[in-house]
């Protein structure tokens, strides 16, 4: 559960070019998830009341200084400057040539007697493996049969997310606290599950209905499975940081597990959270999979232009070219007042043998923290008045929902299709100038390792008065792109739809959308939080099937959201 919190922007000094090397505070080995489910039947409703998570939604109102004192702006390094990408306000380009396959209930309202006590937002995420799905929503986790959604855990069918870290023993914040912000992945090349969440203690007596004050120690918690069975045993790692590592996102790359965070410091006497910069880290996954000593190589105190960065997440059967450094994207929406906005593409290459040799730059030998700058069209502005706040209406209530439009949405899905065709895809919520309706922006970057790379597709799907936001995207083995997202309007309850484009469609267009779940209620919480992210994954069994999970409203309540797990496949992909 996330609560609204005060914040400020702290001075961000120049980050050191030599990365910090961290070793785990604690390591261990878990029991199997089946063991935890056996001793953790349905969680009593009262247990939810203290499971609070620090908020990560905040934004600078337009008109704030472009660059705060001491903030590092970064260095652009580009041999050839590309022309601004053109955003098309696309109505339709024909019927979506896809078939809806699965559509079953996920964690939340309607899931096996679930009782929700106002945990907002749900932070819906999942990973898809061979025969199994792990879905983690806020502070609880379930494991399901991929084919029919059957529960693979006993008791209630779900466990508290922090239970897997109980193997770390006494003194472990990861084991004792359960704040959420989960992200999980399935490393198809290695056949391993990777689970993560942040954890922290809460200052005594400082929490209130809409404010939570985290305090030291701040930790990041990682669990990697020993086999491809999600219900089995995991190697456990707990890293301690001097600042709160908020809004973590992870990506799997051949040489490591990459994660990014937004870092905050807190004054517990007044509960003021200061944003002090962003962090980019790489974990030695080979050591973690082997259950041996590992390290995290991190750059911290990075500029506000790194805010809510996304690490590239490799999927598919063709690995990136040998020694390709990981891709990291971010935007300058957070620090600028007006468009045009620019997408920033960096490359991170950790050296786990000699960490000082690690590099974070444009990938072409540029200065530390240099980047490739990819300009958007002048018409690209964030939804909710270009500030990323609350504006999405619902029927029957004055409560509106937030969009997080100033953040690129998880995941940054990387695919190598051979023949010199690599791509990165992600979504963001935007508002065409003057339209006052949130739309889904799909961005596809072709050949991201080239100089320059190309924004090959940049389309805002906004065909009518319905708001579309909180999206996620991926591409299948043929290059078809699928998108899932939330929808809502004054006459349409928050529901779920999908859209996409076939590989050979005209550039900058999407096909007509497909309804997945029709909402039948509204969220009336005064926090007005919605999501934080959703998740789209590709099935490793066929490399064709898209799996998507997000929330919707099945009834009008303060915060009793529901989720769905859906799959679909383009008819051309077999």
Describe the overall structure.
- With 574 residues, the protein is mainly beta.
- The chain has four helices and 36 strands.
- 4% of the residues lie in helices and 42% in strands.
- Strand 13 and strand 14 form a beta hairpin.
- Strands 4, 5, 19, 20, 21, 22, 23, 26, 27, 28 and 29 form an eleven-stranded mixed beta sheet that branches. Strands 1, 2, 15, 16, 17 and 18 form a six-stranded mixed beta sheet that branches.
- It is globular and about 55 Å long.
- The N terminus is likely disordered.
- It starts with 6 loop residues before the first strand and ends with a strand.
Please outline the major beta sheet.
11 strands, mixed
- Helix fraction bin: under 10%
Query: If you compute it from the alpha carbons, what radius of gyration comes out, rounded to the nearest whole angstrom?
Result: 22 Å
Low-pLDDT segments, ≥5 res: 1-13, 43-73, 206-210
Number of strands: 36
Task: List the total number of helices.
Answer: 4
Average residue-wise pLDDT: 86
Question: Span from first to last CA?
Answer: 40 Å
Structural class: mainly beta
- The best one-word shape is globular
Question: What share of the residues does DSSP label as strand, in percent?
Answer: 35-45%
Keywords:
574 residues; mainly beta; disordered N terminus; 11-stranded mixed β-sheet; 42% strand; 6-stranded mixed β-sheet; 4 helices
